[in-house]
Structures are given as C-alpha cells and as structure tokens.
Amino acid sequence: MIGFLIRRVLQAIVVLFVVSVITFILLHMLPGGEARAVLGVKATPVQIAAFNHTNGLDKSLPVQYVEWLGQVLQGHLGYSYHLNQTVASLIAEKLPKTIVLNAIALIISVGLAIPIGIRQAVKRNKAFDYAATGLSFIFYSSPIFFLALVLVLWFSLDLGWLPSEAPQSGSVVGILSQPTELVLPVLTLVLAQIALFSRYMRSSFMDGLVQDYVRTAKAKGASDLRVQYLHILRNSLIPMATLIGLSLPGILGGALIVEQVFNYPGMGLLFWQEAQVNDYPVLLGVTLIGGAATVVGNLIADVLYGVLDPRVRY
Amino acid sequence: MPDSMGPNPGPVPGDAPVIAGAAVDEPTGGPVDGEARSMFRLGLEVFVQNRLAVVGAGVIVFFLLFCFVGPLIYHTDQVHTNLMLSNGAPGGAHPFGTDASGYDELGRLMYGGQASLEVGLAAAVLASVVGTLYGAIAGYLGGWVDSVMMRLVDGGFAIPPLFLLLVLSAIFHPNRWEMIVIIAALSWLGAARLVRGEALSLRVREYVQAVRVMGGSSMRAVLKHVAPNAIGTVVVFASFAVADAILLLAFLGYLGLGLQPPQTDWGGMLSDAINYINSGYWWLLYPPGIAIILVAISFNFLGDALRDAFEVRLRGR
C-alpha cells in the first residue's frame, strides 16, 4: 500500500507537470503574445519589445517555462491587467463560492442517485427502471445550458416561484443565507449529474446482486433490505468513489455554464467574463487550478479505492 | 476472430466512465450462436434486437435527411435578413415561426443542423483516427515510449475540456474546419486510452508476433494488425464522441464563440433564443434544444448497442 501510494503520488506529480506544460504552451499560442494582449492593438514595435524585455518574454522558451513554473510554485499565478488584481487573489476570492455550489449539488445528486440506482437494479426491467433509464438518457444528452434555460423559463418566468439569478453576495455565508436563489443553479447541476451517477450505481449494484456473499447472506436468513443496504451497498459504493473523482473535469465544466447562466459569482463566471476580454493570465491560472484539482481528485479516488476495498492489492 | 476484442482494458482509472458516460448496460441477451454464422451477422442481430438502438439509428437518419435533403424541398432564405418578419409566432407560412432576423425557424433548424451534424461527425471521426493511431503506437511499442505518451494523455484528461475549448476558441475565432480540429483535439484522448489498452494485449498475439518474425516493420504491425483489431472499441467510442462533439459545439455556439452569422448551428440558435426568453418566444428555444437532445441521445443509444454487439464476452449468456 505504501509503495502504491508513493508510485501514485509520483505519477500525479508527472501529470501535474504535463498540465503545466500544456498550459504554458497555450500562453504562448496567443496571437501577438502577451504584450499585444496587454498593450492593445496600437502598441508600437518598440513598446512591445520593451514590454517583452522587462517581463523576460524575450528569453528562450525553456528558460521562460522554468521561471514561470518557479513563480507558479510560489503561488504567483500572474496578474490580471483587466481587473488590476493578482490572479491568486481573484481565485482565492471566487474558489470557495464555486466549491460551495458544487458541494451542495454533489451531495444532493449522489444522495439521490444511490437509492434510485439501487431500486433500478433490484426492480430491473420494470416500469421504474425504464422510466429512470429514459430520464437519465435525456438529462445526460441535454446541453446543461438548455436544461438551465428551460428551468428558468418554467420556474421563474412562467410560474414565478423562484428567482432566475443566483445569490450575488460577496461572502460564502451571504450566499448560503439566500437558499431560494440557490435552488435553480443547484437543481440544474443535480439533474445533469444524477443521470451519470444513478446509471453507474445501477450497474455496480447489479454486479453486486449476483455475488456469492449475497447468496450466503440470504441463506443465513438475512432480509432483503439488510442484504441490499448492508452487504451490497457498501461494495457497490467503491466504483462510485472512483467515478466521482473522475467526473471532476465534467463537474467543473458544468459549473462554468451554470455560473454563467445564473450569474453566480464563482470561478466559472470569472473565467467566462475574462475570456470575453482576452485576460489570459486569469484564463490560464484558472485552467491550471482546474487541472490540479482534477489530478488531486483522481489521486484521492484511487487511494480511496484501495482503502474501501481490502481485496485490492497493489 | 472472436478474440479480436480482447479483454477490456481493465481498471485503468478514467477508462470507460469518462467517455461512455451514462451508458453502462447489461447484455441484451443475444442468441446462442451456431459456429456457422459470422461474427458480423451475430453482432447485427444483437444490435437489431436492441430496439432503442434501432430507434436511435432511425432518428439519426431522419435528422440527416431533414437537414441535408429538407432544404431542397422546403426553400427558405437563410442569408438575407428581413426585419419585417422578425420574431413571428408559429403558423401560416412559417410553421415554426421566425427568429429575430426574420429567418424562417424551420429552415434555420435544417441549416443549423447541417453545421452541427457535419462538425459533430467530422470531429468524432478525426478524434477516433488520431486517438486510435496514438493509442495503437503507444500500446504496441510499450516501455518508456508508452509511459511518456500516456502521461501526456493523462495530462490532457486533467484539464477540464470546456475551459480549454473556451480558451482555444477565444484565441483562434475558428471557422467550421478549425472548429472540427479543435473539438477533435479535445476528444481524441479517450480513444487513445481505450485503444492503447487493447494494443497492450494485441501486441503479444501470435499474428502480430508473426509479422515481427517475418520482418514486418512496426509501422506495418500497427497499421495493418493492431489498429484494425481494435475497431470494435473505436466504433463504440466514435458514436459516443459524435454526441459529445455536438454538445461541445452547441456549448460554443451558446457562448457566442461558435460560427458567425449568417452561419449558425443549433447551439447558436439557442444563444439567440436567450435574448428573447423574457419575451416568451418559446419557439426559438425548444426546436434547437430538442433537436440537440434527440441527436445526442440517439448517438448514445447507438454506442450502447454497438458495445453490446461487439462485446463477445456477453454473447450466449
């Protein structure tokens, strides 16, 4: 286990390195480079050369990469010329809000997906299973912004039950104190995620149903509910742990759209707004953080797999 | 021949779950096979037995006809704006209404669908080809080459694709062809990982060893023997990839980074609809949204059924 842990962490570091290289290359694909983006289209070649020199952009690419990486490792993600703020401070401000929104949505969707998936697996090929399967296919194949728009159209504009804008408060506490305004953004995320999770829960539970230990437990007279919730559930949660770790990029992408539609002041909205004005340091900083979060999420999921399932040997 | 599928790539983290999405299904219970019937025939039977897949294939054919043949029958002007007709409700000469520029919404649905389907299909094919070759080479060569190549894939997987897509389209302002390349550039990773898993098991097969013994080059082994034998996996991947590509394109169109007017795609139409959502012009919102969902579901159904059809291990269960 220790050996596996070390190998897995080393692998994660390598992947993080690759992520940083990809991000860095993107930075240098900008037309006209960073100087053009900062100084604008009217900058003279002399001004651009001066900007490049003061910022070390006239050095060779590998040298620039090493310097940039050194900065990133110290927490300096760059400077947003558009918002006149460091990228790190922007992210520190927005990240907690994104985490809150997604944590609420994730807890609800997993909490609902587990019982739905179990019922589907137990009553396989019955009406409930077909209905849930059909719905999950529909939600899985819907663009998340369409889902969000339809919800706004129905619940805010037609019925007038819920506000169409997310909480605008500057603090996490302030956001949590406006639960009605959180309903639609959270609901959109839940609908999009539950399709995937319940589908996996169903198949993973179905694998569990035919295991020997289930027959043994039943032979010993355990009730159906006891077998389902005590014996099978615990085993079928293992692939779910991995799945959640692996879904992180998708979850972050979904959050981007939901934040944009509902004007929720998190990282996704920041990313979207700065993409409009080519504020590259912010875009790259957020992308880097997203990549790092995914790598760490996958690492945790992998390690959790070994902890949850003692049969797994590395 | 039956072993051409090989075992699944195993519990490589991030394997099927990311690509296959919602689609994990139990076998449909194919017929017990007589040896005489070909695997293709058997696969076809399993496929046809899956009614959802047949419906999905039907929907896809319908939309292909609707978008590419439809405009030949139902003539509309999708180039010149006509503000006299703007935002008309469905009815009369315009069964689906008109949009803000006065374009006929039904005709627009056909016209936008051409872009969505073309880009979706082309991006999926491109991603599959690139991913297959990459994965086949990595798996066939093995060793440190494989390690380096696959860590690159891991790194690509770690970056949320929507973020990357936004950055790339902000930088390039892509036209239709560049859009295909960008979407493919984000989608080939899954194919690479799946095919690499297959290639690892294929490279030690006798017929691949035989190529080596006979002096065939690595290139020949990869192109003629490893890659073609992973075709089942690739086809399944490709059908899911079409659905994903159409959704990615719709996302770009929705954010206004897609095709520029008067061109459009279904996502771009949705983007136009948002401006009028407060006015209650529902006919701008539902048709493109439902079209995207129907086509995406159909390709997901198709991928599901194809997996069952190719999945030799499930047969006769």
UniProtKB/TrEMBL annotation, chain A:
<dbReference type="Pfam" id="PF00528">
    <property type="entry name" value="BPD_transp_1"/>
</dbReference>
<feature type="transmembrane region" description="Helical">
    <location>
        <begin position="282"/>
        <end position="308"/>
    </location>
</feature>
<dbReference type="GO" id="GO:0055085">
    <property type="term" value="P:transmembrane transport"/>
</dbReference>
<protein>
    <submittedName>
        <fullName>ABC transporter permease</fullName>
    </submittedName>
</protein>
<dbReference type="InterPro" id="IPR035906">
    <property type="entry name" value="MetI-like_sf"/>
</dbReference>
<dbReference type="Pfam" id="PF19300">
    <property type="entry name" value="BPD_transp_1_N"/>
</dbReference>
<comment type="similarity">
    <text>Belongs to the binding-protein-dependent transport system permease family.</text>
</comment>
<feature type="transmembrane region" description="Helical">
    <location>
        <begin position="175"/>
        <end position="197"/>
    </location>
</feature>
<keyword id="KW-1133">Transmembrane helix</keyword>
<keyword id="KW-0813">Transport</keyword>
<feature type="transmembrane region" description="Helical">
    <location>
        <begin position="237"/>
        <end position="262"/>
    </location>
</feature>
<dbReference type="InterPro" id="IPR000515">
    <property type="entry name" value="MetI-like"/>
</dbReference>
<feature type="transmembrane region" description="Helical">
    <location>
        <begin position="130"/>
        <end position="155"/>
    </location>
</feature>
<dbReference type="GO" id="GO:0005886">
    <property type="term" value="C:plasma membrane"/>
</dbReference>
<keyword id="KW-0812">Transmembrane</keyword>
<keyword id="KW-1003">Cell membrane</keyword>
<keyword id="KW-0472">Membrane</keyword>
<feature type="domain" description="ABC transmembrane type-1">
    <location>
        <begin position="95"/>
        <end position="301"/>
    </location>
</feature>
<feature type="transmembrane region" description="Helical">
    <location>
        <begin position="99"/>
        <end position="118"/>
    </location>
</feature>
<dbReference type="InterPro" id="IPR045621">
    <property type="entry name" value="BPD_transp_1_N"/>
</dbReference>
<feature type="transmembrane region" description="Helical">
    <location>
        <begin position="12"/>
        <end position="30"/>
    </location>
</feature>
